[in-house]
Amino acid sequence: MDPLADGNIRTVLSPSGYINAAKRAGWEAIGTRTLTPAAELEDGKWEVRFAREVAGNRQIREKAVQVDRERSEESVRLESLRAHADSLEASMVEVGAEGVECMNVWTAVLRPAGSSTSPTTYP
Fold first, then answer.
1. 91 with 120, same domain?
2. Which phi and psi (to 5°) does residue 66 adopt?
3. Taking CA 19 as the corner, what is the angle to CA 121 and CA 114, rounded to the nearest 5 degrees?
4. What is the pLDDT of residues 98-113, one digit of tens each?
5. Does residue 2 sit within a domain?
6. Which structural domain, as residue segments, surrounds residue 59?
């Protein structure tokens, strides 16, 4: 069973990772931008609360210990989850729940590679 079945982030790539994937698929970026969400948005706090609930899940931690001696994909994933959980908890000690903000949002405009078509405006 996936311990993050309710999670909404399925794949994490860096902006350059997305650009490289787009190039391999025959696209090119014609513009990128990073947006900073409004400070009053609560989404960051919600995400941290969810991550802390997952991090504190005893079943996940116990399963991670059980498969520690394996080097399977599942054991690596669980160990990564456990390490991130420990890091999150250490950060929360320093920052506290009130110091949590939404992450910046990176976006790109893509077009088929070699195409001369471009949007009339790009924000």
1. no
2. -65, -35
3. 65
4. 778 888 889 999 999 9
5. no
6. 42-103
